[in-house]
Amino acid sequence: MGPGPSIACAITLNSALTPDQQRLYQDPQVIQRLLRESRTVAVVGLSTDPQRASWFVASYLKKEGYRVIPVNPKANEILGEKCYPDLASIPDPVDLVDVFRPAAECLSVATQAVEIGAKALWLQLKLVKIEAAELAARSGMAVVVDRCVKMEHGRYFGRLHWAGMNTEIISARKARLP
Amino acid sequence: MVHAGHVPDAVTGARAVPIYQTTSFVFEDAEQAAQLFELKQYGNIYTRISNPTTAVLEERMASLEGATGALATASGMAAQLVTFLTLLEPGDEIVASSQLYGGSITQLVHTLKKFSIGVRFVDPSRIEEWEAAITPKTKALYGETIGNPRGAILDISRIAEVAASRGMPLIVDNTLATPSLCRPIEHGATLIVHSATKFIGGHGTALGGVLLDSGKFDFSRYPSVAAPSPAYHDLRFYDTFGHYGFLMKARAETLRDTGACLSPFNSFLLIQGLETLSLRMERQSASALRVAQFLEGHASVAWVAYAGLPSHPDHALAKKYLPGGAGAVFSFGLKSATAAEGRAAGRKFIEGLRLFSHLANIGDVRSLVIHPASTTHQQLSDDELSRGGVSPELIRLSIGLENVEDLLWDLDQALRAP
Description:
The complex is a heterodimer. Chain A is α/β, with parallel strands linked by helices. Chain A has six helices and seven strands; from the N terminus they run ααβαββββαβαβα. Chain A has one domain: Rossmann fold, CATH 3.40.50.720. Chain A has a five-stranded parallel β-sheet with strand order 2-1-5-6-7, with helices on both faces. A two-stranded antiparallel sheet of chain A has the order 3-4. In chain A, strand 3 and strand 4 form a beta hairpin. The relative contact order of chain A is 0.22. The model of chain A has no long low-confidence stretch (mean pLDDT 92). By secondary structure, chain B is an alpha/beta fold. In chain B, helix 2 runs parallel beside helix 11, helix 3 packs across helix 10 and helix 12 runs parallel beside helix 16. In chain B, the strands form two sheets. A seven-stranded mixed β-sheet of chain B has the order 1-7-6-5-4-2-3, sandwiched between helices. Chain B has a five-stranded mixed β-sheet with strand order 8-9-12-11-10.
């Protein structure tokens, strides 16, 4: 169950970003729109190890009905999906590029994301590279930095709450079914 | 207090928090079941690990404390134990304030010893004692916002600085202040524990405890949280769940394995209490100050230890950390020439009260009284008693919601009784 309509609570906990950067790269409206409208998610740096955070996120997204495209030059197939060495090799359009690589590689990933015409760039929790975010935003992409796709999905669809976590959502409106 | 953690559900729209009085939850299919057990999906499996009613209490407490999340337990003692067993390994040590609830001291000294975990107690007001007690084995500092029963106020930000400089978490028991009067995370504390049995519930109807994490501490040097877990397919909780790592470990392993879970019905009762928390704390603290002032001026009273009074050594700290009131629990001593006379006078005074309930609890809407030396602290040695600031004549009050004039009348008639 997700929260009802008209939710615009500020989500401020657990981020290394400044308040100004949070307004630009952690906008709850943008995050909710990306979760709602994205169908194809390229996970850059998806590990072959099922106990890594990237695997947790990708398997969760797949279960939630997203098409997950693994990007990892060292693997042929992950989660039963064909794996590509880089974003440029993916033959289909990509809605969201979710990045699990060190900050030093983010600028290069952002450049590739722009080149393939992806609609959004998402740098995972604790991954802060503002130049990469600025580059993608200048090209018209929606950008999220220092947040986890799985946690945000859980926040707005009512499941993160079941784990006793502070979603920072306050609403007196009836929830919506997913 | 009234909204956080609960969005009316999509099917019924129930406004009050429903009680999910169930032990277990059906799976969608075999694959979802497997993913739930591997923590790859959010969801409920078994009420020993999580429950939707309890989740409302947990998120509401996290919201009030400014924490990243919370874990509810069967009692405050369970919240502490789950914290220690999640964070510490055999051979580790804790440095703790000597001004603690007697049951906490017993748990630290005797029960943790069975896990080969040591404790060193310090005078909480002396920063140099905290510094000196830290050894290479020390993994956490521990204290109470308002110490029980002498009302010592923990200088949270200074002790948090000591903890931060040594790369270890400060754990604060915030039971007597509640987030209504003090939010220790704002002053640098990492982990918060509560006995929700007290002011959180407020009505004396349900036991419960809560553990909260600020989400700001770097646990990467704590193998108990960061290393591959043999009890969970070598999962690295801190690496995988980030700021939720400690709480996920506490829930999926420690709570699972200790079974110290909270009943959903108790969660519901504690949620009812939370809805009026700030109103009760405001009123009960104001009444406590009136009662403390009255006793301080009474001919039969030797001393009053309430940090809301200028006579208390920690009054300045109370003004800093508890600007809205110094809480509703404090102690005082009757005038007496000898220890035996003090004990006898204490007993006679308690027998003479007509409105205060004589029992072993605090934080009720009814006013309570107890004589710790013969009850809550009786398992402690004389040395532990005096280090904890408990003298034979000490009487502890917990001020409730009654009309304060009625309370003053009751105390006065009991003090004057022949």
